[in-house]
Amino acid sequence: MTTLKVNGRDHQVDADPDTPLLYVLRNDVALNAAKFGCGLGQCGSCTVIVDGKAVLSCVTPLLLVEGKQVTTLEGLGTVAAPAPIQRAFMEEQAAQCGYCIAGMMMRAQALLMRNPKPSDAQIRAELEPHLCRCGTHMRILRAVHRAARLMDTADAASDRSVR
Amino acid sequence: MPGQLRIITGIAAIVLVAGVAAGYAVAWRPQIAAIAPPRPDTFDPDIVKRGRDLASIGNCNTCHTVQGGANYAGGLPVPTPFGTIFSSNITPDAETGIGGWPEEAFVRAMRAGVSRAGRHLYPTFPYDHFTNVSDADDRALYAFLMTRQPVHASAPANQLSFPLNYRPLIAGWKLLYFRSGDVPSDAAKGAEWNRGAYLVEGLAHCGACHTPRNALGAERVNAQFAGGDVDNWHAYALNDTSRAPVRWTADALYAYLRHGWHADHGTARGPMAEVVGNLASVPDSDVRAIAMYMADISGAPAPDRKPPADAVTPSTSADATQPNAAGAAIYAAACAACHEGNRALPYGGVNLALSTAIASPDPRNLLNIVLSGVTAVDGERSPIMPGFAASIDDAQMVALANYLRARFGKRPAWNDLDKAVRNARTVQAASLAVRDASTESTQRGKP
Predict the structure, then answer these.
(1) Nearest residue of A to residue B386, measured between CA atoms
(2) What is the rounded distance in angstroms from the CA atom of residue B301 to the CA atom of residue A23?
(3) Could you say which DSSP state residue B319 is in?
(4) Out of A139, B73, B324, B447, which residue is the most buried by the measure of CB atoms under 10 Å away?
(5) Residue pLDDT, tens place only, B104-155
(6) B331: nearest CA in chain A?
(7) How many pairs of residues across A and B have Cβ atoms under 8 Å apart?
(8) Is the CB of residue A52 less than 8 Å away from at least one CB of chain B?
C-alpha cells in the first residue's frame, strides 16, 4: 500500500511502485481530468502538478511521488466554482475537442504560480511540450493571459490553493 | 644620492616606456578597411555549397545562433571560468555583422583571432584550431557566410571583470599559447587519415571541448583529448583514458557521428547532439576521415576496457548485494522499463552497463540526462527520454546515481554527489531561462 496525497487528501493505493502516476490517478483514485495521450511523455495531456511543478504523469512512477503533494485539475476548481485558470479557458473558448486542455491548464497553472505575469514568449516556451491537434493555440495563449489577470483580482481568489 | 635616484628613475622610465611600446607592438593590429557588403550573386554557388558543408563541420551555428533565433546572428552567452562571452553576429549585416569584412579580414580572424577593426578576439572563438584551416576552405566559408540573410543584431556586451575585459591582454595569451601549423601529417598513413587530422585539429575543433584547459583557458598540450568541459557537460576523454565500457573503433565512431548513436555506446546528447546533427549533412568521406583519425590516435585502451567483440554482459536482474535499496527501487520503477526493455536503439534505452556517463569520473552527464531527458528533434524521427527534473527530488537523484554507479559503473561512488545534483538543477533551470529570453528576443525582432 502506498499513500498518495492528491488534492489535499490521502489515498491508500494498492499499486506496484512502477505504476505510472496517471494510471493510479485515473484507475485507483478515479480522477479522470489527466488524459492518456501518448504514454511517452511527448504530448502533455497527462500533466499534473507535483509539489508545485508540472509533471508528465504518464512517465512518472508512483514511487517518485510518494509523500509529495499531487494536484490534478479537479483540485483547482469545480463546475460551480471554477478556478481562475478554468474560468479563463472557458471565457476564451480555448478548447475545441478539449483532450489536451486539462494538461495545458495544469502547466499554465504551474507557470502562473511562479511567474504571475508571464510574457507571450514565456507562455509559448512553457507550453511547448503540449500538443493540440485542433489548433486552438492562439486562444490558449489568450486564456493564460486572462487567467493571469483573473488571479490578480480579488474576486477570483480561490481558497483552493494548489497544494 | 639625488643623482643616483635620478638615474634609477630614468632607467625605470625607459623600461616603462619600452615595455609599453613593446606591449603595444605585440598587441597592436591594424584595422582593415570596411567594404560595401558584396552581393550574394558575386559568389560561385559551388564554393558557397562547399562552405555550407565546412560550416557544418565547424559547428559554427551552435555558438553563433541562439535557440529560436536567426541563424548565425550571434548573441549566445558562452559561460567560461573568466566570465560570460557572447558570440558575435556573423551574418553579412554591414553594421552589426561581418558584412563590411573583406575576405582578407575574415581570413585574419580565422587564422590569427583578430577582428576587422584590429581587436584581439577572445579564444572562446577557437582560432587556435581554425588557424589550421586552408586558404581555400576559408574562402568557401567566407562565401557561405556572406551569402546568408543579413540580420541586424548586436550581441550583448561580454561580462568580464577587469583586467580580462582589456583585449590587448589577449596578445599576451597568444604569445604563450597560440601556435599554428600543428596539424600532424604522415604520408605513410594515407590520404584519409591526413584528411581526418586536418579536420579534427582544424575546423572541427574537437579538442576545444574534449581537451582539458589550463588555468588561463588554453588547451593543455600534454593532455590532448583527455576530456574537458562544455556548458556544464563533461566532454568525454577520447584518448587512452576513455571510460567507454566498450572500446571505440573507427567503424563505431563513424556510425555514431553519422547517425548520432551506436549500439555499443548509446546516443549523442547535450552539446554532442548538436555536433552530430550538423555532421548529418556533411559528405560521408569527411565523417569517415574524422572517425579514422580519431580512432587511430585514441591510443591503446586501459586494460579493464573490453574490445567490441567481448560484449558487455547486460545485467538484467537487480544485484542482491546492493545495499542501496532506495536507488534500486527508483531504478526499477523509473528506468528499467525502457533501459531493460526490448526496444532496439536508438528508440529504446541503452543497456546502462554500456553507459560512458555512468563509468565516467564526472557525474554531470548522467545528472543532466536524468533531469532534462532527451527531447525529440523537430520534424525527425529521434530518440526520446522523459526528463525527471520536476518529479525526482535531490535525495532521490543522489540515491539513483549512487545505485547506477555501483551496479553498472562498478566503480567507487562519486564524491560530492549532492552538490553536483544541486548544480545540475541550477544549470537546468538556467538553460530554460535562457531559452525563454531568447524566444523573447525573436519575438521582439519581428517586424
Answers:
(1) A41
(2) 47
(3) -
(4) B73
(5) 999 999 999 999 999 999 999 999 999 999 999 999 999 999 999 999 999 9
(6) A18
(7) 60
(8) no
